[in-house]
Each structure stands twice: as C-alpha cells, then as structure tokens.
Amino acid sequence: MPQLSTVFRKLEEGSKRLTPQRELVIRIFADHPGEHLSAEEVHHLVKKEFADIGLATVYRALELLTDLNILQRISFNDGKARYEFNQEELHRHHHLVCLRCGKVDEFNEDLLDPLEERIFQQRGFKVLDHELKLYGICKSCAKNARTRG
Amino acid sequence: MPQLSTVFRKLEEGSKRLTPQRELVIRIFADHPGEHLSAEEVHHLVKKEFADIGLATVYRALELLTDLNILQRISFNDGKARYEFNQEELHRHHHLVCLRCGKVDEFNEDLLDPLEERIFQQRGFKVLDHELKLYGICKSCAKNARTRG
DNA sequence: CTACGTGCAAACAGTTTGCAGTGCG
DNA sequence: CGCACTGCAAACTGTTTGCACGTAG
C-alpha cells in the first residue's frame, strides 16, 4: 500500500494531476485491503462520496494507476478485470479461488524463485512477473457439502 | 489429445451429437497442437473447410467441449478466452507468456504438488486445479533488443 | 415427431473513445 | 493560453441468446 506522497511523485513525473476523483479511487483500495475490485465495484464505491463521477473516469484512473504501477490488474476468468494495490512483494503473493463460492484468498510463497532461475538458464526466458492461481474448494464450502450431503 | 471414440462416448452420455461442425472444431485443435486458440481463430480456421459455419456455433461447440472436459478454457488477460485440449497432465502444464511478442510457450513442472498438500493441511483448501503463468521476455526478443539497442 | 443443432441477427457486458466543456498550472 | 481532465454518450469487442428452420434418432 503506497504512500500518498509516492503516488503524487509518480503522477508529477508524467505531469499528471492528483484530482479528487483519482485520489478517491486510490482511497477506495486503501479502504478495502485484500479485496480484488472490478471497475464497476470501484465506480459504485466512489460514487458514494462523489456522486457524479463517470464510469469512464474510473476506467481511466484505473488504467493510469496501473501504468504507474500503483495498481495491478488481475483476472479470475469471470469476464471482468480486477484491481488491487501492486504489492512490491507481488512475487510472493498468489491467489486461492474457491470454485463454489467464488471467494478469493491469498497466500505467500517464495518457492517460485528457483524455478524461474532454472527457466532462464534453460530457455533464456527472463521472468518478470508471475501469476499463480489455485482453484479448488475452500474449507467452509467443503464443510457445508459434508453437512448437507 | 483425446481419441475420437472418447469424444463420441462423452457426447453420447449427454445425448449430444457429433456433428460435422463439432468434429471440425475438434480437428482444428488436433491440427494445432500447443497453440492456444481464441474463438475467433477457431472460427476462422474452421471456415476454410466449412464455409458457412456461424461464429455462434463455434462458441457453442467450445462451451460444450469445455463442459465435457475435452477442451480447457484459459485466459492470458488479453480480453479474450483461449482454448486448448484438456491435457490430463494439466497439473504439470504451465505457460510462459512473452510480454513483448505475445508468444506463449509451455513448460512442465511438478513442483506445485508439495505446496498444494501444505495448503490443504494448513487451511483446509482443497486444490483441484491450478494455473501458473510466468510473464517476461523470451529469448529472441531479448536478443533483438540487444542487437537493436 | 420430438429434441437437438444450426445460422443469423439482435442483445449483452465490459471497456474504450470522441467530444465539448472545465479549470489547474 | 494550453493542456490535462472530466462526464456523457456512442462506439467497439468478445460473448450469449432468441428465433425460425432443418435434421438425426
């Protein structure tokens, strides 16, 4: 979760402004740690405090913040993009997606480093980023299935 | 890559028919091993042999074949879904996506098994499937950058 | 004859873009 | 003043659906 001053510097470097709309979008993510918000969800949340913000503005803010590496765009294959703060420790930050209830949890793991090193040695492919998603059934869904069945 | 007889059995179980269109869609994947085709690409390829097949039919065939676990739907965050044969050894089958030229390569690795076991022990989350994507720069793009720069 | 399958066109959802107006730097 | 930024509506892309017709079982 970036400092506002960092955000401000990054914006200035590209002579971009920290408008109220953009600041609000950032605050929404600060207020919803660990969530993976879609553009529509962000729009909905921002609207509570800034009634007439346009959806396009939200999209443009999300794009800008993603370009500045303040946000990270991810997809869980449900047809819409989602966003979260671009954690520096992204390389150790993965997702557990429950196929039944849709809940997305996170976990940290550094076991990919040796693999990426080996891939570079063997194929010359330099890994810059990665994405590991584990799909399955979460604890509470498994319990419910047992109880009900 | 499934036997046609397997496909036929799976279709019969759901009283679905192996129409020429569906058979062609399957053949397209057989003829393009290792590729990750979008619906539009499949449509384009099928059209060469069956001129007036509709795009909707392709979508419906892809959905059906995915439901039957003959195909697997994947996404590389480029806004469109892609498909490939659902390899049984999927659990060892991951993707290297070049951020410069977009080429998608594959690699196999079984190092996730112990991790998944640990996640089940620690959190009760039962992993059924997973998706590992490594984003970076492929060998030839890295070489071109060096040559040109 | 019924249920499945098809092509076509229209509908849809998420996202992007063109444009006229606003206001910071 | 100039350029970044905005809201709105229209455009666009990938995908799904409704419908009338065809055909396999």
Automatic annotation (TrEMBL), chains A, B:
Cofactor entry: Zn(2+); Mn(2+); Fe(2+)
Sequence positions that bind Fe cation: H130
Annotated cofactor note: Binds 1 zinc ion per subunit. Binds 1 Mn(2+) or Fe(2+) ion per subunit.
Binding site for Zn(2+): C98, C101, C138, C141
Entry keyword set: DNA-binding, Iron, Metal-binding, Repressor, Transcription, Transcription regulation, Zinc
GO molecular function, one term: transcription cis-regulatory region binding
One GO BP: negative regulation of DNA-templated transcription
Family membership: Belongs to the Fur family.
Name by which UniProt lists this protein: Transcriptional repressor
